[in-house]
């Protein structure tokens, strides 16, 4: 019998999983379409290439497609660019500023239109109702209590935080696309196991019908087989729906259409042989040095401390050096120019408590950022321990379930032989088939859970990258 993949049951289901995974080397017409789609997806500047391995999507290709177009990376890169521009903006305050001004004023009564530095009755000053004035000013701050340096330091800290955010976004995407890829692979294996179970149950139903027609079995045998087949069909519909959701998520991360992902087989993934993981203290220390969230929290502390230093600079006087050249003229067109230069010292004597409150606020924000850094550190340490526990649990489950699959397969084989020989019980065979299906699905989930836990540890320690994936993951059996 044929079961479809979709939301409904029976004939309303979509084509089965095998139809979505064509045998590419054996059938050129079935193989060229997925390979061509994959080539189109991966085409572009800087692409690693579109080697499709016979039309199968590899994890590295899924990662490449995700990193090339995902909007979270675009936002993170724009944040880095904005923060770097902030550094340049803050540094500009260390240089002299040159400005130009021009104005024309019309007075009700005639006004002096040239500088009056003395009075000579023989040469009285010119009076006009229109005054034209232009100036070129150069100013430079000699001392501002460290405010400029604090602003530059804050901009640098914000840039470091933006860079850490971009790295964290990359690592999060790598972990997400790896998880989605593994989930699709697991769901497809589960669906295939459902198909095998349905085929076995369908065959058993046909056998029961034959025995009933020959008068060698009671009707309850047929009903029992039909009930088991109906349950298996319902479970398969649920598995197909979960697979569709997983494929849509993978397609969403890659920026592709879900139908495109459904047409591609996935290359198997397994952990490559590697040296043993270091002990928990070493992993926690690595996370302390390389974790991106800790780096962001550290940069927030530096930025908050720089803001506090800027607030304290308001308690110091400001010393500025200035120079100016001014041109005066009347509407009649006569112009006179002069230069000016000097040093200015300013200090606000009373600001209604604004400086004190600004300093208190900045100091409180710095204390809060330091405590948030501690909280982040505790969270990272806990996450490392949870990932280690998940990795150890997955490894133990893989070892136990691999043996369970072999044992369940042997039990199902023996029960089938006994049933065919007339010495077995149908319920024992159906139970053995169900246990074999459960063991296979659990083994697949455990293997992928081990990979996911290892990837999560790499993310927490700041080691996760496309190169790390290439070194530590390989095509499985």
User: What is the helical fraction, as a range of percent?
Assistant: 55-70%
**Percentage of residues in DSSP E strands:** 5-15%
C-alpha Rg (nearest Å): 38 Å
The whole-number mean of residue pLDDT values reads 84
Strand line-up across the major sheet: 1-2-4-5
Could you list some keywords that capture this structure?
alpha+beta; 12 helices; elongated; two-stranded antiparallel sheet; 13% strand; 4-stranded antiparallel β-sheet; single chain; 477 residues
In short:
By secondary structure, the protein is an alpha+beta fold. It has helices spanning 17-20, 28-42, 59-69, 71-91, 147-213, 219-254, 258-262, 280-290, 292-312, 354-420, 426-460, 466-472, and strands spanning 97-112, 127-143, 270-271, 318-330, 335-346, 473-474. The chain is elongated, with a radius of gyration of 38 Å.
Could you please describe the fold and organization of this structure?
With 477 residues, the protein is of the alpha+beta class. The protein is built from twelve helices and six strands. A four-stranded antiparallel sheet has the order 1-2-4-5, with no helix packed on it. A two-stranded antiparallel ribbon has the order 3-6. A hairpin with a 4-residue loop joins strand 4 and strand 5. Helix 5 (147-213) packs antiparallel against helix 6, helix 9 (292-312) packs antiparallel against helix 10 and helix 10 runs antiparallel to helix 11. The longest helix is centred in the middle third of the chain and has 67 residues, at 147-213. The model is unreliable at 1-36 and 44-54 (pLDDT under 50).
């Amino acid at each position: 019998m044929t079961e479809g993949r979709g939301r409904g049951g029976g004939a309303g289901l979509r084509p089965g999983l095998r139809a979505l995974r064509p045998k590419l080397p054996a059938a050129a017409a079935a193989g060229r379409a997925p390979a061509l789609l994959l080539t189109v997806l991966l085409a572009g500047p800087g692409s690693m290439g579109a080697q499709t391995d016979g039309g199968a999507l590899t994890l590295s290709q899924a990662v490449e497609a995700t990193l090339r177009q995902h909007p979270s990376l675009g936002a993170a890169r724009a944040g880095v660019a904005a923060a770097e521009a902030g550094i340049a903006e803050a540094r500009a305050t260390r240089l002299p500023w040159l400005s130009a001004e021009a104005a024309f004023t019309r007075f009700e009564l005639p006004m002096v239109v040239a500088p009056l530095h003395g009075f000579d009755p023989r040469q009285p000053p010119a009076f006009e109702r229109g005054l034209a004035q232009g100036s070129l000013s150069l100013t430079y701050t000699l001392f501002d209590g460290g405010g400029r340096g604090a602003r530059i330091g804050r901009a640098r800290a914000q840039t470091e935080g933006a860079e850490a955010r971009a790295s964290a976004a990359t690592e999060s995407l790598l972990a997400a696309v790896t998880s989605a890829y593994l989930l699709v692979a697991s769901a497809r294996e589960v669906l295939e196991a459902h198909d095998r179970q349905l085929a076995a149950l369908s065959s058993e139903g046909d056998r029961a019908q034959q025995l009933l027609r020959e008068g060698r079995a009671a009707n309850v045998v047929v009903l029992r087989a039909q009930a088991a087949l109906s349950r298996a069909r319902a479970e398969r519909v649920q598995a197909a729906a979960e697979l569709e959701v997983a494929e849509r998520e993978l397609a969403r991360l890659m920026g592709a259409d879900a139908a495109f992902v459904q047409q591609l087989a996935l290359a198997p993934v397994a952990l490559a042989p590697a040296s043993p993981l270091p002990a928990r203290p070493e992993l926690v220390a690595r996370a302390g040095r390389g974790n991106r969230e800790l780096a962001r929290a550290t940069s927030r502390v530096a930025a908050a401390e720089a803001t506090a230093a800027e607030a304290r600079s308001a308690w110091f006087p400001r010393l500025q050096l200035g120079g100016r050249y001014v041109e005066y003229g009347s509407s009649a067109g006569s112009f006179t120019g002069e230069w000016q230069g000097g040093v200015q010292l300013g200090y606000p004597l009373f600001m209604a408590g604004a400086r004190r409150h600004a300093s208190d606020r900045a100091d409180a924000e710095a204390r809060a950022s330091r405590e948030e850094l501690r909280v982040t550190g505790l969270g990272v340490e806990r996450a490392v321990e949870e990932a280690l526990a998940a990795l150890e649990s997955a490894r133990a489950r893989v070892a136990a379930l691999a043996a369970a699959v072999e044992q369940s397969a042997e039990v199902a084989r023996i029960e089938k032989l006994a049933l065919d020989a007339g010495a077995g019980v149908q319920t024992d065979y159906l139970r053995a088939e169900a246990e074999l299906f459960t063991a296979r699905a659990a083994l697949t989930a455990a293997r992928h859970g081990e990979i996911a836990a290892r990837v999560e540890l790499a993310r927490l320690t700041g080691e996760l990258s496309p190169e790390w994936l290439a070194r530590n993951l390989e095509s499985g059996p």
